[in-house]
Amino acid sequence: MELTRRMLTEQELAVDPVVAAKLLLGCVMEVDGPEGPIGVRLVEVEAYRGGDDPASHCYRGRTPRNDVMFGPPGFLYVYFVYGMHYCANIVCLTDGVPGAVLLRAGEVVTGVESARLRRRAARSDVELAKGPAKLTTVLGLSRENNGVHLLDPASPVRLFAGDPVPPEQIHAGPRVGVATAMDRPWRFWVDDSPAVSTCRRGGRRRTRP
DNA sequence: CAGCAGATGCGCT
DNA sequence: GCGCATCTGCTGA
């Protein structure tokens, strides 16, 4: 059993998304599953900023959809994409200044049985949360969880500190699935984790030229 | 293994 | 309408 589990503090997340991203590697997201808690240790994340980041949902200003990203740190930003998937972010920086860290992949460390039931397509346990939408599926996150506070022990979704990842184990590269801002290596992952998602080449291939 | 098309809904131009 | 911070299953080597 774990002895002392510490929740992250608002202060730790009140920093630039690039700093927060590296801090979040190794941390654990936890929800209440049907048969006990389900926990995922984060091994791959991406930093997104605001008006100066063309790849960010906040690049063109505040809208009802991205509103949570403009709020205080420590809240969950969930959005719907590609007609059938959800992606989850942890809001950072300060109230009024948009910034967030996309959760791209993790290792299921608690409630593996429940996670398997939610992801029947996974061919092995390391694939359970190997991808941003796979991760939200394992945690059961959807638009209903948009805006929940992660730093409250009574919250349905909680964020715990993990063993810090040594800097030499943190690798960086361009963000996945974005065609702009390729010069910003704001995707970070734990080098030795098998749960890091497969790196695809930059932009998605378009339909016929 | 790699590569790709289809699924599928919503926000914004 | 178009374009998505995607996943899965099918194809061919």
Automatic annotation (TrEMBL):
<keyword id="KW-0234">DNA repair</keyword>
<dbReference type="GO" id="GO:0006284">
    <property type="term" value="P:base-excision repair"/>
</dbReference>
<dbReference type="Pfam" id="PF02245">
    <property type="entry name" value="Pur_DNA_glyco"/>
</dbReference>
<dbReference type="InterPro" id="IPR011034">
    <property type="entry name" value="Formyl_transferase-like_C_sf"/>
</dbReference>
<dbReference type="GO" id="GO:0003677">
    <property type="term" value="F:DNA binding"/>
</dbReference>
<keyword id="KW-0378">Hydrolase</keyword>
<keyword id="KW-0227">DNA damage</keyword>
<protein>
    <recommendedName>
        <fullName>Putative 3-methyladenine DNA glycosylase</fullName>
        <ecNumber>3.2.2.-</ecNumber>
    </recommendedName>
</protein>
<dbReference type="InterPro" id="IPR003180">
    <property type="entry name" value="MPG"/>
</dbReference>
<comment type="similarity">
    <text>Belongs to the DNA glycosylase MPG family.</text>
</comment>
<dbReference type="GO" id="GO:0003905">
    <property type="term" value="F:alkylbase DNA N-glycosylase activity"/>
</dbReference>
<dbReference type="InterPro" id="IPR036995">
    <property type="entry name" value="MPG_sf"/>
</dbReference>
